Amino acid sequence: MNAVQRFIRSKVLLLTAAILIAAMCLSVLVQSQSQAALNRTVDENSRGLYDVLVQAKAPSGALLQPEIANGTGGISFEQLDSIRKLSGTAVAAPISLVSRVTQNLEAPRLDAMDYLGYNAGLAGTATADQAAGATSPDKWPAAESVLSDTAKKYRLTASAVSSDGVSEQTLFKSTAEGTLGKAKLVEEKAAGGSSIRIAAPQGETGIKFPSPAGGSEHNLFNLSVSLPLAPEVTESVVAVDPAAERALLGTAGDFLAPLEKAPPADARNAGAVGRYLEGLFSNGIGLDELKDGPDFLGVKLKYWAPLMTQYQQAKRTGQLTADSQAIPLVVRSGTSLDLKYNVKIEEIDDSGKVINEVGTATRSLDKDYLPFVSKDPFALSWPGSTDHTSLLGANGNFNQGLYTPAKWSTDFASAPKYTDGETSANGAVDKNAVPGEWVTVNRLPEKSANGAPVDQTQREPVDERSYRDNLSNGQKQASPLAMVYGTFDPAAVAQAAGDVNKLPLGGYDPTPFTVVKDADGKDVKSTELKPSLSATGLASQSAGAITDYYGLAAARGYTDNASVIDAVRVRANAPGSWKEAQPDVEKLAAEIRDMGLEATIVAGSAREDTSIFVPGYSKDDAGKESNLGTVEQSWVRQNAAEAVTGSLSGTNITLLFLTLCGAALLTGASTVSYIRKRRSEAGTLRAMGWTQRRIRSWVLEEFGVGAVLLAVVGTVLSLISWSLSTALVCAAVLLLYVAAALFAAQQLRHRDVIDQEPQHDERLIPVDSPLTFANRQLGTQKFNTIALAVAVGVFGAAVGGLIALLIDIPRAAGASALSGLAAASVALPSILLALAGVVVGLVLTLVTGRFELNAKRQYLGILEAMGWNPDMLRQVRLFENALVGTVALPLGVLGALGIGLLLAPYAALWAGVAGLVAVLCWIPIATKVVQ
Amino acid sequence: MTNPTNVQRSRRGGSGEVPLQTRANTIVKAADHATPLELSDITIRYGGGKGGAEAVSVVEGFDLTLHAGEMHCVAGRSGSGKTSILTVGAGLTLPTSGRVFWEGDSLETMGDDEIADRRRALIGYVDQGGALIDGMSALENVLLPAVPDGEVEQRRDMAKDLLDLVGLGRRMRHRPAQLSGGERQRVAIARALILGTRVLVVDEPTASLDRASANRIISILKDTTSDGIAVLVASHDHELVRLSDSLTELI
């Protein structure tokens, strides 16, 4: 029988070679698949819309605050041009916070359906040829009303409520009483014929809230009650270069196309534009033009009415000057501001006692709301009402729009301030918000839309904490007028910016805060902090409008070439992944720094959730301040890509090392098994006259077959993976195998020792029970016992390592969002490796368990023949395994802890617990298997 | 055993208690049943399972009634089924068919625990080669059957007496690896007798032993029968066959 045949016959050697080959293959899996997946994930997610963020002032630390559009400026247009002229620049897109714009929502009203049916004298325009879509007179429904024929007394309670997601605040609550009833048509004779009018029922007093709210009046379809003014709402406006922004955002930036076509600064005089539109209206305008908006220098101005009406209002109040500019805006669709208007309606008797709860009419600012455009955000409807106004058909959009000119200012515009808190072991940094001044919001305007003074007593203003600073303004600006060119969807912009490499832009694309702990530090259900009423607080919503830099100059009163650019986002002229583009990006950043600007490389960065403690958030009526608690916000970790790659590569190498350790242990166990099996064979050969050297050669030849096999596989694997690590692993495995061969050859020498002295040690515990019997057996077979205990310990440690990986590999890789993605990409091979470790541990227990299986079978048979019953035999097996488990326990737990600390420090404790449980579980399982 | 007179007969009392005997009187319990072991129409067949191996019938229709004080020898060539009959008789394996009676009670009606308990009280089994537990001295090996009943300490003197009886009084602290084949066989016989067995089942006690050692074993076995112990022995040793009270020769 030649060496190859002997090698194949020896199952132990075959098993050893197979295990080592598996270890080498796993190393290839780790090195080629896992590492490649890691690199791919990092590359794909480390390069966003732009590579370099240019600011006038350097951000401190490796963690970037998300709000970079904060109105502080510092970069001039000349510097922007210089950046654009650099050969490595593909796109340089400037951005600035322009202003905070405060505007009062126009008069809210409550409409109670009071439809009197078709009447030619009242319907007016309700004929098919006068209004598009008007209902033919013969198809008007029968009259209906939610009011009674005789006037009843009602109490209306109007209130406005706002919530920041954590607490709800009632902004005002106002009550008015009076009688309301169903109107009727009154035909009166007049000179030359008769007239028809709508008259209130007899005895109706109507209902009137304090001024400037008017009273109630009947019209064609409704009884309309004027309600107290809604709170003022503040929006932010940012400036971009539309062409550069579109180049940056791609198709997601198409909403900026109308802004790109906006007229130059010298064609934006508010008076001239207002007069043009006013003249257009005076000279007559077609319905189609009314619907789509008139053509203004090549752009259809769908939302032209606000500009015209605000122009008229400003002219009347004297705000409009010769320098006033019309500012082109693309406005945000919808709002995330939580503002709800409620009107509770109760029928009461003369004594004021409630005799019928009619219901509550409610309306919130929502997706329908457009900054600068919405006229009737709070037109509430009496419960049970039907809207019959559509019977008159579409009446165009002339009536839409906010009549009162907005108030533009830079109060509380810049980004919130934070100070550093604790830093976690995984790199996450805590922050503390720095409270600013108390700001009075929810004010009433001094004058209403018709110029009448407003009764300031009808609601109290609200104090709100600001976490932002005022900005110094330029020259005093002439009152600007909003000229709306279109709308944009903030969610679409956020999506275009991507997730991993997203560097939010403050007012343009703010990062939400999520409340995670209350003021006492207790965990609370995660709640997103909604923008406050005035948007001067901690959280703000997406920009209410986007304009260009001419708009910024007009709103802020700056002249040309002022340093008003907050930041420039630069995309390098370098295609490919982050790693491929990195040299070019770094070169470009260096060139920008040479201009005296700060250039932060954001490619290779990633989001990272930062915990921020927010003190002094609110105060009660007594003036006592309360903390908000802890919020989380995504900041940006610089160089996250390199950190994640380094960390997870380290994890891979650690796993590889552990795999090798497992393979080494298994090789040791199988080698010992081989020696035991071959010892008698070696004795026979020796008896046949073989020399020690010949026997050694005979053994080494068998091992040599395995070594050649391993060398071939190792060479092939190294060539396929072309990785130094794989080559090193293969070499280490081969070395391990050769060492095992030499050890085996050495151990197969003759070593019988004749010893006839009594060997029984009286200090041994007497055998008088299954437990003491098991103890004696394990004590007799010390090597086997320790080998088995080591195997069980390795098994426990491997299970612990696997659990640690499952629990904590993302956190071990760092705190950024990229680390989570990257960890997910390498999780499968890592878990496979850890599972392989578990399998190695199990195989180890089987191999070492086989050492004494024959002896175990023999003595269990002897005990059975002596009349030990099955229960006692089971006890023997259980006690044996329990004792082995006791020895294995520290090894398993400490091993699991060690692996946990190496791979996933935050889950080390869980790893230890898992190791403990695994060893404890092994005891009954092994007891059953031995049976 | 050179002096059979050292072992005296003693019948167990009707109380059923296990009497602790001193060296001066006896170390065994006398048989109280005329036929402690009976095998009826035993057939033992191996193979023929799922593996497709052809079934081999080792023993067919074997009957045996073993009387107290009788030494019955089962002889035959290797593979003829001698050990199989012994393991069936000792209740260690179940026959393919047929019935085994211990003191008139069929094993078919007993559970595993009851068989184990009855075996401990009735049968002493000596494996081929005298299998002992490694790591335990000769004395501890002899005392092992007393562990289940918690009588290790009570039986310690008796175990020493037995080891003296089989000529190993000076080797009681030696471990199996330090004993010769014949010595291990004698320790195994002493172990089989420790609980006052009534049936000694011995498998090839003299195989691979020299003549002198074999004769010593045979002498011990023969002496036990004089105490009313029934001996069922498998062997092809001519001397053992010659001294047996009855013989079954397997073909």
UniProtKB/TrEMBL annotation, chain A:
Region annotated Disordered, chain positions: 443-474
Keywords for the protein's UniProt record, in alphabetical order: Cell cycle, Cell division, Cell membrane, Membrane, Signal, Transmembrane, Transmembrane helix
Membrane topology per record: Multi-pass membrane protein
UniProt KW Transmembrane keyword: yes
Organism: Pseudarthrobacter enclensis
Bias-annotated ranges (Basic and acidic residues): 457-468
First-listed, main subcellular location of the protein, grouped into a coarse class: membrane
A GO biological-process term: cell division
Regions crossing the membrane: 655-676, 697-720, 726-745, 786-807, 827-847, 882-903, 909-930
Domain ABC3 transporter permease C-terminal residue range list: 654-725, 832-903
Protein name as catalogued: Cell division protein FtsX
Family, per entry: Belongs to the ABC-4 integral membrane protein family.
From TrEMBL, chain B:
Annotated ranges, domain ABC transporter: 37-251
GO-annotated molecular function: ATP binding; ATP hydrolysis activity; transmembrane transporter activity
GO cellular component, one term: plasma membrane
Region Disordered, residue ranges: 1-20
Keywords linked to the UniProt accession: ATP-binding, Nucleotide-binding
Record-linked InterPro entries: AAA+_ATPase (IPR003593), ABC_transporter-like_ATP-bd (IPR003439), ABC_transporter-like_CS (IPR017871), ABC_transpr_LolD-like (IPR015854), P-loop_NTPase (IPR027417)
Pfam family, one: ABC_tran
Nucleotide-binding as UniProt keyword: yes
Annotated protein name in UniProt: ABC transporter
Organism name: Pseudarthrobacter enclensis
